[in-house]
Amino acid sequence: MLTRRRRRETILVNVNHDESTADQCDRIIRVNDGKIERDEQIRAKGSA
Asked: How far is the C-alpha of 1 from the C-alpha of 8, rounded, in Å?
């Protein structure tokens, strides 16, 4: 699903509590009690 999203340059919103799933994403927005705690832009895997 994530590979298909990257090929089509679309947005996928995935809400979960699984760190291994989050590790595959380009961006992680951490929310606690309905408020954004942290917004992390993750460098694409394989890029320098």
From this structure: 11
